[in-house]
Each structure stands twice: as structure tokens, then as C-alpha cells.
Amino acid sequence: MYLVKEDRFENESQLFEHSPVPTVCINSSGGILHANYSAQALFSLDMTQLVNKPLTTSIMPVDRRRFNNYLAELEDGNSAHCELTFKMRFGGKLNTLFLGKPIIENGHFQFSIVSIIDISAQKLVENSLHETKEELQHLAHHDSLTNLPNRYLLEDRLETAMARIKRNGWMGALVFIDVDRFKIINDDYGHHVGDEVLIEVAKRLRLTVREQDTVCRYSGDEFIIILEDITCKADATNVIKKIIDGFSQPIHDLIEHPLIVSASAGACLFDKSDYDCDELIKKADYAMYESKKRGRNCYTFFSAEHSIAQNLNIIMENELSMAIEKNEFQLHFQPQIDATTNRIEGVEVLTRWMHPSRGIVGPDDFIQRMENAHLSSHLTEWVLSQACKVGKSLIDRGLEFGRIAVNITPKEFTSTSLIAVVEKSLVDSGLPANKLELELTESSIMQNPALAEKLLHQFNQMGIRLTLDDFGTGYSALSCLNDYPFHCIKIDKSFVDNLSDNKKSSTLVDAMMSIANSLGLDIIAEGVETKEQLTQLNKIGCNLMQGFYFSTPISEDELSEYLLKKQIGKSSQRSSVIPLH
Ligand code: C2E
Ligand code: CA
Ligand code: CA
Asked: How many whole angstroms from its chain centre is CA 306?
């Protein structure tokens, strides 16, 4: 033990003098009565210089009022602490904590003992924690690429805007913006260019709207703008037009040539009534899709008609999500004929939805909806597995059908799982790969040409036949056909329709024929309905055909019957089944 009983008082005073904590005794107005060695060091003054010095002069002016209150507190007889910035004699400042205790004798204040603790390090940590917290707050509410508010902050801003509009009685608009064909930019030029495009888009959007309007990056290439304080639809229209126009300026210095991007917009107005944020976003999103359907680079306002369609969509999407489980899909088959030999070369699988109350629903009314609802992969899987089973069963029954052709949407084609799904269907059913054909459209390639090429080669190596469907309706250059291992091109029905009365159409089909021939590809015409069309096609040299003239899409049983009749030479040329259309 350091303290020895007999000179305890002496040592206690030494304890004060030598304490590593700077400590002073002060009177009620802060005048220094005594300072220990650490305090003398802190003030850079010795005891003689410190006596009677007002402590206030060592406190930064901004803290002086607080210090005076602190002195009053001590004088009142209360122990007190206070954070004060201490001014060093030769420059610099310290964050300090003053810990004070008043000495009271006979109920009267005598003096206070104040320890001055350096808390600079602690303050530094606190400040940086505060900054980190603020930074994290910012990060959580802003998109790191464009620094725009993100979807989490959007909801906040939207609610604030709605509250303001409720008060001032004006109007607001929620504008959903989607960069057109952004995926192609990303795929063709790489993600770094894609990122730069998004930064530029963000900048242009920000510059087009007013300060009080919110521009937010909703996700990927989707942006949402909240326009506030508008008086009518025309006000919103003007801003949206400006936004769309803003896109028309090419972006320079990103790639070797100026890059032109466009955007599609959907808008939804709101007034002082009650709205649900999600509902508004969905409506603007819906309207944006309408713009995409109308050919992109335009805007659409959500209307009452959309509301009805959107409700129907929601109902249909819900029903579709159950349709596979409920076994409501059915495959129909349409024969593909070689008109010169009358042989059947293939059957195309066309899916029908047997809706319990709506009756037979055609694929044009459900494929896109299933894609929107992210259900299409289930359908593709189901169609492929059923189609392969039917094919194998026909083989087992000795019925000759050529190949069984399944339609694949662009989205499904580029999905990572398609190869595995096709392999599984073949293995599970036992159908040889060369009996399966996939029908793909030009957009399957255009969406991601490099990936498409890779996938097509893989399917080709598996022995699967590949057909380019709806040929002539897309925008790909005919020359690009050379790069992809297709076996067949299918001339779109629109060309066949115009064959007899449109010279241009027959010239085009003629041109398609020569391309197919020069590339060693088969060519098939779809939608053949009349004898004249058949004759015309024969003249041009196109012999493979499919259409109502031969047969409408028919059920599995009807197909078996059709094949059997053909095989035993009893086939009548036309099927009696009534077309779906
Ligand atoms: P598609 O591949 O162009 O199929 C041909 C469409 O034309 C079919 O319509 C067929 O019924 C119809 N059709 C065939 N011959 C004639 C004719 O002579 N005259 C007329 N007016 N029409 C004819 P459907 O079955 O309504 O199919 C529409 C589209 O839906 C198909 O177009 C195809 O792209 C898609 N589709 C059908 N089933 C499936 C499927 O299981 N999966 C995917 N991904 N798409 C499918
Ligand atoms: Ca097809
Ligand atoms: Ca087609």
C-alpha cells in the first residue's frame, strides 16, 4: 500500500499534485486558485502565472456561455460535468470533459475542484462514427452508381409529395422511365459502357426536371420521377416530352461513335385523393409497357381503359400461376407437309389453355402474360417434357411424324436453364434428339447475339434441329444467318397471305428462297390456307408447308388418327377440325 498511516495527509496532497489528470481549484467565477502539475503542463504556465488567471480565457468563445452556466451549477453546490473546447496556449484546441465538484463548508460554497480530461480521441471516434452513420444512411437511400435516391427513398418522397399535394390542392405525376434496349448496349459494349450510359441518363433526367422534383433510380435501367406542383395533365406532358427529347441527343466519347439511346415512359397523375404508392408505381409501369408495345421512344398516360386491362391481367396472371398444376394446358399439333411428296415432315406444337370459364385461350393471350409474371419457364418446361413424351409415344406406336417442333420465346431461349430442361425432357421421354426441333424468332438472337450463337451451337451439337420462325418480320440482317447454325427458316404467314395479290410479296419470298438455298437451309412456309398459295409456293420452289389448307392445329388423338390415315394411304388432304382463329 502506497499510503503510510502517519504521513497520510502529506501523501494525499502529493496524490493531487502528481495526479496524471490535470486538475484545478477554481473560485465561483472560474479564477484559478491552484493547479496541479498536469494542469500546469496543460496550460503551459507555471503556478505563479496561473494564480488568479480566469479559466474562461482558456475556453473557446463559443463554449463560454455554457462554461458560465457550468460555474453557476457548481456554485449552487452541485457536482457537474461539461464538455468544453479547451484553447491551448500556443495554438490548437482540445476536446475536454470538465468534471467538477464544489467544496461546501457550513453550507457555503468555498471553491470547486475541476479535473480536465482530454477526450479528443474519443470525440474523433464519435465524429467518424457519426460520419459513417450518415454515409451509411446515404448509401442505404441512394444508388451508388448515379447517386440518385433509390427505391427505398422514393416511397418516402412520394408520401411527402402526396401529403404536400393534399395541402396545396395541386397535382402530381409519377413518371416511369425505362431505357430502350439497354440490355443490348450492355451486351454489345460491356457493363462499363452500360454504367456510363446510366450515369448520363441520370444526369439528363436531373437537369430536365425542377429542383423540387424527385428523380430516382428504381432498378437497373428503370427510373422514376415524381413531378410536383403541376396544375394539369398538359404540364406533366410538357416535362415528359422534354425528358424523351433529352434522350435524342447522342452520347459522345463513350464508344467510337456517338451512342443514341431512347427511353419509353409511362405516367400516372395523382391529386389530393388517397393513393397507395405501390399502386401508383404499378400503373405508371403498366403505362410504360404500353409505350414499349407502341414501338418505344414515346410516353403513355395510364387511363381508365388501362385500369380494366390491368385488372384483367392481374386476374389472368393469378389463374395462369395455377394453370399447370390444374392441368389446364393442352398441346395441339399442326402437321408440316412436303407438298411434292405429301409426306409429313414435322409437327409444330401449339399450346392451348383450356380455361374453365373462358373456354380455349390461344397462346397470344397467355404467353406474354406468363413472361410478365415470371411463369414462362414453368410452361416451357412443361411443353418440352409433354412434347417429347408425345413424340416418343408416336414412335413407339410406329407412327411416322418427322420431327416435333416446340416454340421457344426469346426470354426462355436465353435463360440459363433451357439446355438442361431440353436434355431432361429428352432423357426422361427417351425421344432421340434428332426428332426434336426448336422454333426460335429473330429477337432470340438480337437480344444477345453472342450468347445466342453459343447456345445454338450447343443445341446443334446435341443433334436438335433449329428453325428460325416468323422469318422476314424481324430486323436482323439476312446475312447474319450465316453465323448461326439454323437448319431451316420459316417464312412468316404475312408473306404467304399476300402471295397471290401482291407481286412484292412473291419477290420477297423468292429472295428468301435463294438465300436459304445458297446457305443450304430448308425453307418452310406457314399459314398456307388456299390452293393458290400452295401453287404459288410450289412455283417459287418452296415445298415445305404448314397451314389450315393441310390441317389446323389438332389434339394428340386427332394427330395419331391423322398420321395413321396418312400411313395407310387413306388420308384425305384436309383435316376437318375447325381452326382456332
Ligand atoms: P407461330 O409459331 O407463328 O405459330 C403459328 C400460329 O399460326 C399458330 O397460332 C397457328 O395456329 C396459326 N396458324 C397456323 N396455320 C394457320 C393458317 O393457315 N391460318 C391462320 N390464320 N393461322 C394459322 P397459335 O397457335 O395461336 O400460336 C400463336 C403463337 O404463339 C405461335 O406463333 C407461337 O409463337 C406461340 N406459341 C404457341 N404455342 C407456344 C408454346 O408452347 N410456347 C411458346 N413459347 N410459344 C408458343
Ligand atoms: Ca412457330
Ligand atoms: Ca410463325
From this structure: 23
Distance 345 CA to ligand 1 centre (A): 18
Does residue 409 line the site of ligand 1, with CB under 6 A?
yes
pLDDT above 90 (res 34): yes
From 407, 415, 498, mutation site for ligand 1 pocket: most ligand atoms within 8 A of C-beta: 407
- Give the percent of the chain with pLDDT over 70: 95
Helix (H) or strand (E) holding 467: strand 465-471
Cβ of 229 below 6 Å from ligand 1: no
Q: Which CATH number fits domain 6-118: 3.30.450.20, 3.40.50.720, 3.40.50.1110, 3.40.50.1580?
A: 3.30.450.20
Strand order in the sheet with 214-219: 214-219, 222-230, 171-179, 263-270, 299-301
Class of domain 142-306: alpha beta
- The CATH code that applies to domain 334-351+376-568 is 3.20.20.450
Is 485 buried (19+), middle (13-18) or exposed (0-12) by CB count in 10 A? middle
Residue 547 Cβ inside 6 Å of ligand 1? The answer reads: yes
Give 66 Cα–ligand 3 centroid separation in angstroms.
Answer: 83
pLDDT confidence bin for 509, thresholds 50/70/90: confident
